[in-house]
UniProtKB/TrEMBL annotation:
Keyword ATP-binding carried by entry: no
GO molecular function, one term: monooxygenase activity
Keyword set includes Nuclease: no
Origin species: Fodinibius roseus
Residue ranges constituting the FAD dependent oxidoreductase domain according to the UniProt record: 7-195
Protein name: FADH2 O2-dependent halogenase
Length: 512
């Protein structure tokens, strides 16, 4: 059996793996891309953000992938690739539900929070319909001439004489490959296990499970609101054109609509609550949705989409590997660990990893960094672990406060503070890829103030919700507003209309 030799083998052909392979090819490397499944395939990790858009645009320019630019906005996406399904994502929308009661709110939006991330549908972020987008990126890989093997499983890895020897199986056939480097873009720990890298154990605070799928026939949330005479007249956008978060006693429900009639929906449940629900995922899904009349109405005529044709479940979402890089290998962030989908950090975090790994391989085999490649990758590893811990703080505090919507809206502004400041740094040309962590997780002040706010939330939420005095809630709001003031160009916690933020959007410049 003849061995095929490469400079770099990328394992995993999701969007991050394909973009990494395409960037490396542009840098002049001989690249192999291996995927264990076949496209199109079902995948979640679908909610993009302004940060993800910025990184896509930078990757398009830096690595001469001009076609990639159009995927950074809904309008340009529709102009150039309407055949690739996606959805409009104008921002983040949150609705606080009470078990056994239809959703209700008031003129002060006391149970709603809408945070705009764009100024129009055309300039909006997108929900990625991954079966289409991932398949499109693989078509670009093939078009470029990169060797691509799908339905192929890596069965053994051996490092010898400074190179990797890979054995892989496709159905009954075996292939032998050799490469200097392996980039793990699998998004799981399976390949890391083959590399001998154990899990670090789950030392993250957030503890959640999920049940999810794609659905058709799901009633739009705005239609339900109007049918029940709940005004949306002062909304900055249609909430169905956003990342919809329905906050529940058990956790929350995401809804992401695509322009092909499909909606991604998933229950994210605190793990101790999931343990009390029926073991069967279909029964658990129906049990939770049935507790909330408004959600039951939405799903009354909905059915699981043909792709994937079933519900999926994950017992524990949180994971973290012990290492992110080693001799001749490096992993993307989503392979290294994951926290939770609450703040839609997954796509942007993965792209930030693509950006940093490609940077490490610039200059034809030497790092573009002022540091040796090994030093840069060591910095990258420390940054990824710091970023996961930072995201964990931002997420877990929201879980602790979700049953008290005033506390939740206050604490959630900490995420938006971090995101907006990261966006602004990139927009002003001040972003330093060698030193600035994702979401500014290594900022000299922002993480410290979030740690302090998290500790306060821990103390406040240790009491039953009904026993938290309103003055404590208001004091916390005032404190958070004061702490974020130096980093708050968007007027967070001080909107003209309570809980409605029309202008937090980063200006990405004029359209191309």
């Amino acid at each position: 059996m003849k061995e095929k030799r490469y400079d770099i083998a990328v394992i995993g052909a999701g969007f991050a793996g394909s973009l990494t392979a395409l960037g490396l090819d542009q840098l002049g490397y001989n690249v192999l891309l291996i995927e264990k499944e076949a496209h199109p395939r079902f995948a979640i990790g679908e909610s993009s953000t302004p940060i993800a858009d910025m990184i896509l645009r930078d990757l398009a320019g830096r690595y001469d992938l001009s076609w990639l630019y159009s995927f950074s906005r809904y309008g340009s996406w529709q102009d150039h690739h309407p055949e690739v399904a996606c959805g409009i994502k104008r921002g983040f929308s949150y609705y606080s539900h009470r078990r056994g009661r239809p959703f209700r709110t008031d003129e002060a939006h006391s149970r709603e929070l809408l945070v705009a991330a764009s100024v129009s549908n055309r300039q909006s972020d997108t929900n990625w319909y991954r079966p289409d987008l991932d398949a499109f990126l693989v078509s670009k890989v093939r078009e470029t001439g990169i060797d691509y093997f799908d339905q192929t499983t890596v069965t053994s890895l051996l490092r010898t004489a400074g190179r990797w020897e890979l054995e892989a199986r496709r159905e009954k056939d075996f292939q032998l490959f050799s490469s200097d480097w392996i980039i793990d873009a699998t998004g799981s720990g399976a390949l890391l296990h083959q590399l001998g890298i154990p899990s670090a154990g789950v030392d993250l605070r957030t503890r959640t499970s999920a049940i999810f799928s794609h659905f058709t026939g799901l009633k739009p949330w705005q239609s339900w609101l109007r049918e029940h005479h709940i005004s949306t007249g002062d909304y900055p956008y249609n909430p169905d054109f956003s990342a919809l978060h329905h906050l529940l006693d058990e956790g929350w429900l995401w809804m992401l609509r695509f322009n092909n009639g499909t909606t991604s929906a998933g229950l994210v449940l605190e793990q101790y609550i999931r343990a009390r629900l029926p073991e069967n995922k279909q029964a658990a899904w129906k049990h939770v949705i049935g507790r909330y009349p408004s959600l039951a109405d939405l799903f009354e005529k909905a059915s699981v989409a043909e792709l994937p044709g079933q519900l999926f479940s994950a017992r524990r979402l949180q994971r973290r590997a012990q290492k992110v890089y080693g001799e001749g290998w490096v992993a993307l962030p989503h392979t290294a660990g994951f926290v939770d989908p609450l703040h839609s950090t997954g796509i942007a975090h993965s792209l930030s990893g693509v950006e940093r790994i490609l940077y490490a391989f610039e200059e034809g085999g030497g790092s573009a960094s002022s540091q040796p490649r090994s030093d840069f990758l060591a910095t990258y590893e420390r940054a990824v672990f710091r970023e996961l811990r930072f995201i964990d703080l931002l997420v877990d505090g929201c879980y602790k406060t979700r049953r008290n919507f005033d506390l939740f809206t206050t604490y959630s502004m900490l995420y938006f503070t971090a995101a907006i400041n990261y966006e602004q740094k990139r927009l002003r040309g001040l972003f330093d890829i060698e030193n600035d962590a994702f979401l500014l997780a290594n900022h000299p002040r922002i993480p410290a103030l979030i740690h302090q706010c998290y500790r306060e939330v821990q103390e406040i939420s240790s009491r039953p919700d009904s026993e938290i005095p309103q003055e404590v809630i208001e004091k916390f709001r005032v404190r958070v507003k004061k702490e974020i003031a130096p980093f708050n160009p968007a007027g967070l916690l001080d909107p003209d209309i309570p809980n409605i933020y029309e202008h937090t959007a980063a200006d990405l410049g004029c359209e191309k």
